[in-house]
Queue: 3 jobs
Job 1
Amino acid sequence: MKRSTIQDAMFPGCPVRNIMARLCDKWALLVIYILDRSGKENMRFMELKQQMPDISQRMLTMTLRTLEEDGYISRTIFSEVPPRVEYALTERTKSLKPILDLLLQWSVDHMDDIMRDRKKATPIND
């Protein structure tokens, strides 16, 4: 699904395709996690980038735009020279916190077993 897709054309009422596909991409949950765990109300772009050294600047920009479009984060632009931009979690995303905390704990609890199963899996020859 393209990042710019507003709604899945074939399944417009499907929350998995319309909400979870964008929220659960490779970077979105990590950005939310970092904003939540930073201990700050807001973070600047480079602060986020420093916490995610393996993401490109372009991909971080795209991820932040997608999260902002869907109302998970807010972006505040300050009229300064140079311009200052800060990102923060919205109330919508703060309501997700208990769910995300459970998902994080589940991941920690089961990571070793999942990694062991991955190693045991036979590669599929396409």
Job 2
Amino acid sequence: MNEFFNALEALFFTELFGKITLYMILSTVLKFVFVLVVLSFISRIVRMITMDIQQSAVRRPVQAATLRLLSNPDDYDFPLRDEYYLSDNTSIGRADDNTIVIKDRQMSKHQAVIVQNGSHFFIDDLQATNPTTINDAIVSQPTELHSRDIVALGGLHFVFLNEEEHED
């Protein structure tokens, strides 16, 4: 066995070109191969991240729709915001268990619900004392909201805006 190791040592540590040995050449080549493997791995990771970012940019963002108050919120004796963002299932009323709580005395405890279906929003009156209206038409069944529709809830008037209208 010693003869084998002696033969390997003689092979690897014999000077080939001046002080350069086969061991030095092989170790340098293996270092370069290792660096190339690591760089290849890093480039694949960067490519995957780039593709993911590009796909994210192509995906349409979540629809951002709102009800924007048409009058000044300071004109009322209850807390009121200028704008209410709508989610997949937004309930509106005077009761605290609603998504949007508005303490207007003309609003029912559970006035209406707005449901999102894809990029479309539908409003339904929940048998409120003061009916919900869209552009002065009473809502008697789920009705699709369109950009710039005027929605009356209780004694308040809002304009429905989809995501494209927020840039105005």
Job 3
Amino acid sequence: MAQIQAIKGFADQFPAQSRLFEMMEATAREVFPRYGFGELRTPLMEYTDLFCRGIGTETDVVQKEMYCIPDSKGRSMSLRPEATAGVMRAYIESGVHAREAVSRFFTIGPMFRHERPQKGRMRQFHQINCECLGPKEPEADAEIICMMMEFLGRLGLRNLTLQINSLGCSSCRPVYRRNLHDWLANLDQSKLCEDCRRRMETNPLRVLDCKVPACKELTADAPVILDNECPDCRAHFEAVLRHLDAEKIPYEINHRLVRGLDYYTRTTWEVVSNEIGSQGSVAGGGRYDGLVEQLGGPSVPGIGFACGMERLALLLEGRELPAVSPDFYVAVLDDSCRDAAFALAQSLRREGFSGTLGYESRSMKATMRQAGKSGARYTLIMGTNELASGTVIIKNMESGEQREVPCADVAAGLNAEK
């Protein structure tokens, strides 16, 4: 019978890697609540229309990358390709906006995009997302960027670059789009890739995001959106930068930074690393003041960001995490001791100790070899003599010292050894 393999782009996480993810999640749950954020858990699957309306039909995500599944009534459902649209749906449907002037949520979990798997980019990937709904002031933009950079710093990441831009608003961006379209129309269209020729008509800003070297070179002198912004957008962006300067958070203004999703307005940013190859973006976000209304809710401003956990894991590879060693290993020398050994292991776990039980009765030599492989700090040896006397031998695996104690005193003996 043929062996069943994992689906391409879907990876297993064994303990060595899952511990990195646990560390990231624990850091998020430590940092974000100090800024008033609480965890929200949304479904992995939503109606496809949510993402079409929320992300934009002209994005690569909607056009090429979603996993869509029809239900029994013929309605299209999709595995979530990103988290923000689902958070907005939950926010609107639950009526939170009517109860809270400002709502702050973070989410942690898997996303799904059907794209070519490569290092740091999988078809099932994991993100940490933060969304702040309600405030329109630039202080909210600066605060959430500060929180993101603190989170990344707490992970121990240093060689990162914060790139930032402003995409304008519904008043000034249409003017820039027209100017950009007219400028692009004067280029030699045959030198643009097929995607850029299409995007030029549907969403000219996405041309600036093209990664094809020939397109980047051809559009190097494209009009800059910051030169076309209205006074309010310019003042908003200047205030964000002023707060970042005050907090001594370095940044670079990237005029080509438009992000991959259509809902962004005003402040937008990415955090990039040059240590993980072509997939250098490890976090990014921006303001999306019209998204809640676009999805059928009230006119509520919003801002948020996402961190790609697989890409963060690449940066954390080789990082020494605190050793996780079990407290005990119960070594069973004779089958007659197995019931007592099982009961001992359970009683120690109830006392808060961690450890494993040697299921198979072995010789002393084989038992100690297995105990060493377990990584436990103490081996609890139980044979026929110990069973008869109601005792256990506690062996310190580091020093090699051992002593015999009554079964009832094993927990106290382990505590005394600490």
